Amino acid sequence: MQTAEDIKQLNEKIQYAAGFIDRIRQEMAKVVVGQQHMVDRLLIGLLSHGHVLLEGVPGLAKTLTIKSLAQAVHGKFSRIQFTPDLLPADVVGTMIYNQPRNEFTVRKGPIFANFILADEINRAPAKVQSALLEAMQERQVTISESTYTLDDPFLVLATQNPLEQEGTYPLPEAQVDRFMLKVVVGYPDKKQEQLIIRQQVQGAEIAKINQVASINEITQGRALTRQVYMDEKIEQYIVDIVFATRYPDQYGLGKLKGLISYGGSPRASINLALAAKAHAFMEKRGFVIPDDIKGICKDVMRHRVGLTYEAEAENMTSEKIIDDILKVVQVP
User: Fold this and answer.
1) d(CA 309, CA 260)
2) Cα(189)–Cα(186) distance, rounded to whole angstroms?
3) Which CATH fold would you assign to the domain 18-218?
């Protein structure tokens, strides 16, 4: 049990250690106009060892943001364009016959990097998805009879286009659940769009992203994020939110029972707690408050609440269901 003095000391540590978050935000702002929500969610994923799924129409700077983050921390960046003819070996690597040596050697694939951009992830077939699944969950890759541990940090940042459905493969629920966050990327506002036009039309060179944080700082930040204090009442709040997606009638939400086909798994509870701690760390706080949970709840839960046909017929979305739950579940 942490005392008030322990939390005060942790606060002071975090005030100092979280400085790299501000530096990364400022550096990325040189090339990414707006999209602060997306940038912050990528940083939460980085602090929590969590993978992030970005959903949005083309042209919203998803790829640019991920690439800029990799440059800002000087991590190895790898981009994989997912297509229907992609093979597992194109992602993880394969065995190549070396004729002079008369033996097979391993040729590692693009998955061996710190930041993996899985572009349009829902365009690849199930075999490729299963190869990626092992890397995401176990943080290792098996090629032939050998297993290779992936670099740390290892972050899969996947994008998918919600508009086109032709030539796409819906992601298996098991894989979607392994994404810590699903972030819906929206359009910029008028002023931001005007600034984007000005930057692009003037033909000026795109600003260079410099390294402003080290892998060592990120490792220390991750360790401190785990230490952020979470009260038992906050833990109970998280459990209540997740249980309300499974048994809505027990929380006075009987109207949702016919709209939810399945609720959040225990992975939802774990990720909600981890993301809340990362959110508190980014706010330079050594303890979690209910606003941290509310702030990241939709990003953690929207892909973990299944909708029935009745819900789709009534234009009910998982976000609306989460809103209803947050209104009813008692805040500590």
Assistant:
1) 9
2) 9
3) Rossmann fold (3.40.50)
CB 237 within 8 A of CB 329: yes
Q: How many CB atoms lie within 10 A of CB 111?
A: 25
> Is 1.10.8.80 the CATH classification of the domain at 229-328?
yes
Is there a contact between 141 and 111 (Cβ–Cβ < 8 Å)?
yes
- Residue 190 CB partners (closer than 8 Å, separation 6+): none
Q: Domain locations in the chain? A: 18-218, 229-328
Contacts for 53 with CB less than 8 Å, ≥ 6 apart: 121, 158, 159, 160, 176, 179, 181, 182, 183, 303
Residue type, 131: A
Question: In the chain, what's the furthest Cα-to-Cα distance?
Answer: 72
SS (H, E, C) 261-274: EECCCHHHHHHHHH
Give the pLDDT of the chain (332 residues) as one tens digit per residue: 667 777 888 888 888 888 899 999 998 888 888 888 899 999 999 999 889 999 888 878 888 888 888 889 888 889 998 888 888 888 888 888 878 878 788 888 899 988 989 888 888 887 888 888 888 888 888 887 788 888 888 889 888 877 666 667 777 777 788 899 999 888 888 888 888 888 777 765 667 888 888 888 888 999 999 999 999 999 999 999 999 999 988 888 888 888 888 888 899 999 999 999 999 999 998 899 999 999 999 999 999 898 889 888 888 888 899 999 999 998 88
Q: Is the pTM of this model over 0.70?
A: yes
The reply to whether domains 18-218 and 229-328 share a CATH topology is no
Which residue type does 107 have?
A: R
Beta bridge mates, 79:
117
Q: Are strands 306-307 and 260-262 parallel, antiparallel or unpaired?
A: antiparallel
Q: What's the full length of the chain, in residues?
A: 332
